[in-house]
Design a protein that fits this description.
single chain; 322 residues; alpha+beta; 5-stranded mixed beta sheet; 3-stranded antiparallel beta sheet; 9 helices; 10 strands; 34% helix
């Protein structure tokens, strides 16, 4: 009798083959991060010279602190792969950093600091701060963003807090402690999401014009905030009337951006449970990053986040100026 061959799961990413060891062994973690950051050409983190060498222990193995040293006479400084990243000056082992990055990048709805605490043995305070650093690494700089083009769906939602309005009397964010979050999704492309201090026509139009190219076509619901947008965009402004039970009219819909909000809220409720207004923007950045890298494999998404960690610092307390 003919039998079909058993299908064996195929590892989709070479990187994933190395990550488990990097998550459990400190030397493997250091060498993994060095390879991802420098490749075959390590360079001095202070002067940029490639004339560097690994400092060795007496037995010929790696130095206990995994130090490198620059050979340039003008420099001669020591450094590690931690230098110039979100984990610089952190006492947390790099194997735990590798695990936390991988967990945050491979879970659709994120991973809580409490889960990281259970898996690594760190204190909750250390795990929480580590996750905030990872979210900081994931975040894009919205200061001078490349404008979104094509067809853009725009919507706002409210996260956290408790509503104070009577049951059945819900209105957009009124009578609530919830924090507004605005998102703009380019169909077939990326999302741009941000926490807003308050939602009104002035604030919304400001962020919309900052993030969307004037050649775009914008799609929203019928909220008064979005009135007169059409005259600012060459592609026009189309709406769906949610209050009348209309959610799709031809290709006019905001279902894509609402799908992003659905994932965000499921993460907030099911994974993180309670997020303060002070740190909400970091969680929004995390969900934005995963959405914008949704076409990558988990390993590739993790490596991209690790590379984005370079050149960023997040202090537990703001440094005091001299």
């Amino acid at each position: 009798m003919d039998t079909k061959p058993i299908k064996i799961a195929k590892d989709k990413s070479e990187i994933v083959k190395n990550l488990p060891k990097a998550c459990s062994d400190e030397t493997a973690a250091v060498e993994f991060l060095e390879a991802q950051r420098w490749g075959d050409q390590p360079a001095c983190m202070h002067c940029g010279s490639v004339k560097v060498y690994q400092m060795k222990a007496r037995d010929g193995g790696r130095n206990k602190r995994f130090l490198w040293k620059c050979k340039e006479k003008e420099c001669g400084k020591q450094y590690t792969v931690r230098a110039g990243t979100v984990f610089e000056d952190s006492l947390i082992p790099l194997r735990n950093w590798c695990y936390a990055f991988w967990a945050a990048c491979s879970s659709k709805k994120g991973v809580s600091a409490l889960q990281i605490k259970r898996q690594t043995g760190l204190s909750y305070k250390s795990a929480l701060f580590m996750m905030h650093r990872i979210r900081y690494a994931m975040a894009d700089d919205h200061g001078k963003p490349e404008p979104l083009t094509g067809t853009i769906e725009i919507d706002e939602t409210y996260v956290g807090g408790r509503p104070r309005h009577p049951v059945g009397k819900k209105k957009r964010g009124k009578g609530t402690d919830k924090t507004p979050v605005v998102a703009m999704v380019q169909r077939g492309g990326s999302v741009r999401a941000m926490v807003m201090p308050t939602v009104n026509g002035k604030n919304l139009k400001r962020v919309i014009h900052q993030n969307i190219h004037q050649s775009a076509r914008v799609l929203t619901d019928e909220a008064s905030y979005y009135k007169s947008l059409g005259k600012h965009f060459e592609g026009g402004h189309d709406t769906v009337n949610h209050s009348a039970g209309e959610y799709v009219n031809g290709d006019i819909t905001t279902n894509t951006v609402e799908g992003f909000f659905s994932i965000l809220k499921r993460g907030m409720i099911g994974t993180f449970h309670a997020v303060s207004k002070k740190h909400l923007h970091r969680y929004v950045s995390e969900f934005e990053y995963r959405y914008n890298t949704r076409h990558l494999e988990d390993g590739e998404r993790t490596i991209m986040a690790l590379r984005k960690a370079e050149g960023k610092r997040l202090f537990y307390k703001s440094p005091v100026s001299a």
